[in-house]
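Batch manifest, entry 17 of 40.
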Amino acid sequence: MKLLDKLAIAAATACCFTAMTAAASAYPDRPIRMVVGYAAGGPTDVIARVVAKHMSDNLGQPVVVENKPGASAHIATNDVMMSAPDGYKVLVTSLTLNVNPLLYPDRYTYDAVKSFEPVSNFVQLPMVVVTNYDSPYKDMASLIADAKANPQQLTFGSSGFGGSAHLAAEMLSAKAGIKMIHVPFKGNGPALQEMIAGRISFMFYPSIGIANYVTDKKLRVLAVGTKEPLSDFPGVPTLESQGLVGFEGGSSWIGMVAPAGTPRDIVDKLNQSAVTALSQPEVREQLKQLGAQVVGDTPEQFRDFLIADKKRWADVIKQGNVKPE
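Output type: structure tokens
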């Protein structure tokens, strides 16, 4: 290669680097779109809107939540994955980011940490085991005993195939050595209403938004999937205290990722903005009232979490012989 050609390439590379650096330093200079793969009003949407409001304040630009539900959140996931890696479109997502490719490898070919830049895990939503208040099950021991005595008779509800409630129940099946019938619904709301009506035996449910049903004696909480008891449900034992370990790792989570290739300066700005939002006392109190546990980690920590999360659900899917429906 001639010297002049080498100099031209070097100059072009330097100009490109300078332009990228300038863009990152000026970021953001217009609104940011925060895409959510679920309908408005669900846990992921609610958490996203709480964080987006305060990110808007500290970034000086609007952070606008955009709902794109459908295909187990894949419509939103694909939209962000294929977007320009400039920090102006990000995805607020949940465990489906890892679970979809595990369940449907031919349909969803992306990888959570290769196709995206992890930004921060916002919150964990501990799973709780609930049943109708008038159910014959007053504790986990009676539920498991009945399931063992009557294989394939107990029904458990979920927000859909491959969701957190479904996979948590598959974890229970594997750990307790029981066989049950999965009854999927189109969302947590419909599943919970069927649970309240007593038409399904029990379900795992994110801790968000059920306290009033418990107070009104419409639901009974049999156990919580956390290391320590939850203050929202006094007197309710943990699954771990009953010999059912590992459910705290199976909690539903809600975090933010950007398209792969997003400059590190921009990822850091997004992370700092989200962590700052999550550190605000009013935000922490609001999330606590919703039953969410604040995380607010670094991009590296979130990346490590996503890798471990993928392995955990791969093991559950294999042990439970979970097949696509």
